[in-house]
Amino acid sequence: MEMLKVQNLSVxxxxxxxxxxxxxxxxxxEIITLIGSNxxxxxxxLMSISNLVxxxxxxxxxxxxxxxxxxxxxxxKNGLCHVPEGRKIFPALTVYENLWLGTIxxxxxxxxxxxxxxxxxxxxxxxxxxxxxxxxxxLSGGEQQMLAIARGLMMDPDLIMLDEPSLGLAPIxxxxxxxxxxxxxxxxxxxxxxxxxxxMALSIADRGYVLQNGRIALQGKGIELxxxxxxxxxxxxxxx
Amino acid sequence: xQYFISQxxxxxxxxxxxxxxxxxxxxxxxxxxxxxxxxxxxxxMGAFAxxxxxxxxxxxxxxxxxxxxxxxxxxxxxxxxxVCYERFFKAPRxxxxxxxxxxxxxxxxxxxxxxxxARKPMINVIDNKIYTMGPVQISRLQIVIILTVVVLSLLLLxxxxxTRWGVSLRAISQDKSAAALIxxxxxxxxxxxxxxxxxxxxxxxxxIAMSYAILYPSMGSTFGMKAFTASVLGGLTSVxxxxxxxxxxxxxxxxxxxxxxxxxxxxxxFVFLIIILLIRPQGFASKKGGRP
Amino acid sequence: xxxxxxxxxxALAAAISMVIGLTACxxxxxxxxxxxxxxxxxxxxxxxxxxxINIGVVGxxxxxxxxxxxxxxxxxxxxxxxINAAGGAAGYKLTYDSNDSASDANxxxxxxxxxxENDKYSVIIGDFTTSCCVVDAEIVDKYQIxxxxxxxxxxxxxxxxxxxxSMSHTxxxxxxxxxxxxxxxxxxxxxxxxxxxxxxxxxxxxxxxxKAYEELGIExxxxxxxxxxxxxxxxxxxxxxxxxxxxxxxxxxxxxxxIINQIRSAGVETQIQLLGPGAAVQIVDQTGDNSxxxxxxxxxxxxxxxxKVSGFMKTFYEQAGxxxxxxxxxxxxxVYMIATAIENAVADGKTEINRTVIKDYLETAExxxxxxxxxxxxxxxxxxxxxxxxxENGEYVVKCDYGYFD
Lengths: 240, 292, 406
What we know:
The structure holds 3 protein chains of 3 kinds. By secondary structure, chain A is an alpha/beta fold. Chain A contains 10 helices and 10 strands. Helices cover 38% and strands 27% of the residues of chain A. Chain B is mainly alpha-helical. Chain B is built from 11 helices and 4 strands, in the order ααααβββααααβααα. Residues 288-292 of chain B have low confidence and may be disordered. Chain C folds into 2 domains: 5-169 and 304-375, Response regulator (Rossmann fold); 171-298 and 387-400, Response regulator (Rossmann fold), CATH 3.40.50.2300. In chain C, helix 3 crosses helix 11, helix 4 (105-117) runs parallel beside helix 5 (130-143) and helix 6 packs across helix 7. The model of chain C is unreliable at 23-49 (pLDDT under 50). The interface between B and C is large, with 49 and 51 residues.
């Protein structure tokens, strides 16, 4: 099934054109990555899908339903989880409370299921279990990123969109995160991944898109893009 | 000695009323994200609603009064939200602020026209008796007021800590866009938060009217300012610290009056605020535990 | 782009509504005008020979003293209707306009200045408080238009200007009277605790009381003041009652009922004496059982049993929705004094009734009012007779009639 389809999306912020005529497709069970330099429009793409910014033009389909004009909270409740740039966990709520709120995204979750789901996240992220009564703001960057992802998983989403999950994290933690993403896909979920760390992203992705100045410049299988000359020159050479 | 103790008791009673208003204020500022100037009018609106409920039913019944006050102020909260906040979330902050000033003027004058500017008595809502325990003298009225505030505060605490919806309100007050991203209907829940804060203010208004045996439309402004002050002492968005702030102001005022004169009541309250803020700009709140 | 315009429209609407709100609640905010205009006005005034005499009324229609200001307006209206129905004052029809000063001296001054600068007005009735009248008196003196206050009783008012009159006796007269005849003679008290409203009026009364009590040998155990925005008297009540005086003297007007309620709710049983509101029906109505036994001096007893005033009281209640207090019937008498002045002037052969003529004839006018003879003394104040009343079973009962102590 076509999980997500973005058709001819154009977005302006005032006079600044963020996206022009961008189209992507994500099928069920895939890991799709969107790479590109700063300001290329990657975050804008996710914000548009979640309907947090106004679109000038274009249509968005999720599970074959048109969500272009749907209110953000309804989009979430349809099974689309967006883990934003900068993690955005709730700093004055405890780890447990953050996770608990994650269930809001799925109205089919009953009270008694909550505990089970929380335990699942604790299995995936033992460090979160240790800190379960601590305030979100006191966690390290990596732990906050895990919390953000765990919170997203609490709603048992069909599609999970991750915006720069590796940003500002130590290499060891980054590896953990990417392994996690694979695990998530293995449980039957679909992943749309935005990344600056193009090498890592392309190495785990089934397919990828390259955004340049708001346009889709290249697309193809992950492995192919990894070995593409232009991609290597522009996005892979600069990585340490 | 007995005189000093009765001043403390007065201070506790006055303080708990301020605390309730401040709690309502903090909920509004926290959840909606805007400072409001309509709080004073919302407070008095609740008192009037209870007054007319009593007239309509023909008898004084405290639970009825509390319900009427809460509901009436809740409705005013909806009005304020739709006029001042809903459209202005993405606009510069001062627009919503000015709007609340305008609405407060509108409400105050509307109340004067509809209810009349004259004073109305509020007596015999409960059978008053004086209880003496050693050097302490306290009236049943004072006990009822303090208890009402305590019960409502505990109720609010329960909602905010033990219900998912209450926790989501706290989330909204910390980060609106993150809240939207996990499926919270921010616009609707922010309005409900505003209404809860307003409802509590309405009940505080009823308690004020009962405590002072009087109500009239222009009473609201001073109380709005005191609520704001107590809330600022608590760091503006913290509910428990706002309650502490309210209690402190009530006690400071009453003790201050004891050694000087009632003319200086407001001076004590606001000088206290200034001193605290000079020493600790964040009020009673701790420095961390805010936004990252 | 549509959302931007929408935002602008709503913001503009909010700003406009705020401006309307601000101007609506501050009536009569005139521009500051040159005072040389006052002299020009006088010349124009001298040639006013229309068949109408216009009265400007100013008083607090909102705020803490709202009932009194509204009382002015309604009482003046009743008197004007009565006089016009009987053919006017020597054939002149009376009309009036009223404006709200909210007991604020600045607002009051603005309104009085507007009346004074408008040739249409020949005489002003108001304001309610001494603080406003002190400022107003300066203005009417400059513009030379007569002004009569039905109620303000500050001792600086009589003689403050040739153009200013007061229907009320001063505190210099009333306070010692109350101290001697109510506290000492009637209540037999040896000690008092005083709580007073911190305004020009209240502070003056307190000053005269303290002096009087000292001369009478009555101990003042406590003397507490509060602002007119105060609503919570519990701390003052605690302070006063802890000294255990024989009598608690409350110097106030609009807050009297609230204070009585709060004193009794705090369980304080001490005898209460009021000084200020007279025998106001509101006090009895708004206090239930709490006012039982409260004592006060008053210049008039307005009850429906008193045939001389019951007609006025009924009409007043129909129009105002609440009962008339002494202040209202004084405003009523003020209009009749003006009418009497006009009638006397016409009888003397005056063909023009202008501001100066009215002022001159007010000085010698006498009116047999429902509450006794009204006339001004040399300083343009009045000395009124008083009686002592107590609240029994929810009603005022006369304890010492007019002239009891003479």
